[in-house]
Design a protein that fits this description.
Order of helices and strands: HEHHEHEHEHHEEH
Structural class: alpha/beta
Radius of gyration: 19 Å
Bound molecules: farnesyl diphosphate
Number of helices: 8
């Protein structure tokens, strides 16, 4: 018991030490994370793959609180992609059920920490109950002014762009916009990310080095950071390392 107490104090100390080396003045405003490796984590632990998703869901809490402590303003998490529907039905059903476990358990803490929950994704195909749970959390926290916790849920970057172009064409046909008015700042208003700033830093766990149809427009100038660590094992200390690396980068946006 005493040994465990010392171990957890040791972990807290190392988190604290790493946090204090992060320069609070240049923390990325928006961090986006591709939470990958849940199933491989489960296989490594001899568990059914849904156990990986469950542990991954619990880690959402840890990393949300870490983002808040570090001073990140927006945390976008890729929780379910438009391509994930191709997975076995039992796995999809399980993933669709996670919000019903996560939000009732977490909403009190999210409210207490002034976190604003958002959803970035397509409503179609989502089970009624899942959508209702997420929308309830969004509604309950909409006036909060702290960290924005943005769930990319039933999200696909290409679909988002097509959908935006469709809406734009409808507005053009209705005469509310003209082709010569279109610029980047106008187009971004049609995207699902709406008024959120573009991610400054993209983190992907589990050793895969690709974007997988995630925020294709918004990630144009993001700094990319990859780690071999599976999402359920990704801790605040890994998060701090990503931020420390980010702070060493020189962002040129194609200039200089
Ligand atoms: C990718 O790992 C992960 C997912 C498709 C699901 C991610 C979802 C969570 C972490 C929980 C989200 C929480 C809420 C509240 C919605 P993978 O399954 O592709 O793993 P693999 O790469 O090892 O196969």
């Amino acid at each position: 018991m005493l040994k465990r107490l010392f171990q957890s104090k040791g972990k807290a100390d190392s988190r604290e030490a790493a946090r204090s080396s992060v320069d609070k003045k240049s923390v990325p405003e928006h961090v986006a994370i591709i939470m990958d490796g849940n199933r491989r984590w489960a296989t490594e632990h001899g568990l059914p793959r849904v156990a990986g998703h469950h542990t991954g869901m619990n880690n959402v809490r840890e990393i949300t609180m870490a983002a808040d402590r570090l001073g990140v303003h927006v945390l976008t998490l890729y929780a379910f992609s438009t391509e994930n529907w191709k997975r076995p039905k039992d796995e999809v059903d399980y993933l669709m059920g996670l919000p019903q476990e996560f939000f009732p358990k977490m909403i009190g803490e999210l409210e207490e920490k002034n976190v604003q929950v958002r959803m970035m994704g397509h409503r179609e195909l989502l089970p009624e109950q899942t959508l209702q749970t997420v929308e309830e959390a969004v509604k309950r926290t909409e006036k909060n002014s702290g960290l924005v916790l943005n769930f990319a849920f039933n999200y696909g970057g290409r679909k988002e762009i097509l959908h935006s172009v469709q809406k734009l064409m409808e507005d053009a046909a209705a005469g509310t916009v003209r082709a010569d008015q279109l610029d980047e700042s106008m187009f971004r208003q049609y995207l699902l990310s709406g008024d959120l700033p573009d991610p400054d830093l993209l983190i992907r766990t589990s050793g895969e080095i690709r974007l997988s149809n995630f925020m294709l427009w918004q990630l144009a100038y993001a700094e990319l950071w990859f780690t071999e660590v599976f999402w359920p094992d990704f801790t605040e200390v890994h998060f701090q390392r990503a931020i420390l690396d980010y702070q060493k980068r020189v962002r040129r946006y194609g200039g200089l």
